[in-house]
Amino acid sequence: RSFQNMAPDVNLNRPFDPRLFLMDQELDRGVGLLLAGSAELMRAAEEARHKAGLSKPELQILMAIRYTPGQTVGDLRDSLSMTVPTFARIIGELDKRGLIEREREQASDKRRRTLTLSDVGTTLTTQITIVLRERLRLAYRAAGPDAVEGARKVLDSLTR
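The line above is the sequence of HTH marR-type domain-containing protein; the predicted structure tokens follow.
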């Protein structure tokens, strides 16, 4: 049996039944909504990304540095699942454009470098973050505080 035949039909327009939240169909619906939500946020940022002259991988790296500054080069590359050559090329370009800063760790291994945004990188990502905040603010307002709290718990659990 192929995976496609095993996957249940998912109707994202059907009302949610909270009693059934662990059933495969509801889990599939949750995955679909997470992916659609992520795509919607990226669409919202698309104009600002394009105006800034950034590729999607460049934006992905800059936003990861913005929200988790001080990661080592290797840790960030691993978290984004990028190949060494691709990541090194993009980091080199971002460094050349003055968007990031690479600092040597103070620990025993002087080869390890941490990444932070430069002032220019912070300014650029702030413009994009404002767009993302507004889109998320609309969704939060529509869902209400209890739903936002629940969604935050789910997302926190996913990212740990």
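Note on the example: The first helix runs from residue 3 to 6. Strands lie at 71-72, 100-104, 113-117.
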